[in-house]
Amino acid sequence: MDENEIKNITNIENIKELLNDLPEFKYQKELTDKLDAKKDDFTYETMLEIVLWKTNRFPEINDDLIVKINELRKRYDESLSDYILIKLLDSKGFDLPMASTFLRFIDPDYFQIIDQRVYRILYGKNLKIPFSKPKKIELYKKYLIDLKETCISYEIPFSKSDRILYLLDKHPEVNRNQKIKY
């Protein structure tokens, strides 16, 4: 076989032995099992689950965390918000941008999405998310304080600041020489 030729099932030696030796398919096991077992009609939720399955972005959140999120939606509590942020960062499929997105939809008067574009407008540099959870939390809290101060200075409603500053960064008159790193 030519070294540039791609192997296919008809030209793999010992195919039966290799097939017998394959490990169990464990890709997103819980969601895979749920989707495989689905016998009733597909819903919009089913479609979203399939998209999240394909992109490997299905979050694993327990019912206790959902209860806490709904408590925070009813009334802001700093210790509860810290707990939720920590639990989100501990969950599969979550890093700081996704966790902050959840928090923003929980209560936009207290939380906003930490986004590359908004961060750059705020600080004049690209967002670099630290590896450690405590540093992520520290970064997000500082970001929220700085964002609130900026909103006060420029009379921007904090609850819409992530969207407004995102659009500002995309504006043609804003310095476009900086490269966005995602």
How does this model look, in words?
The protein is mainly α and about 180 residues long. About 55% of the residues lie in helices and about 0% in strands. The longest helix has 22 residues, at about 135-155. The protein is extended and about 70 Å long. The model has no long low-confidence stretch (mean pLDDT about 90).
Sum up the structure in keywords.
extended; 9 helices; 56% helix; mainly alpha; 182 residues
Q: What's the helix-strand series? A: HHHHHHHHH
Number of helices: 9
Tertiary shape? extended
Low-confidence parts: none
What fraction strand? Answer: under 5%
Distance between the termini: 40 Å
Structural class, please? mainly alpha
- Gyration radius over CA: 22 Å
Quick check: average pLDDT? 90
Task: Tell me the helix content.
Answer: 55-70%
Give the strand tally: 0
What's this entry about, in short?
The chain is an all-alpha fold.
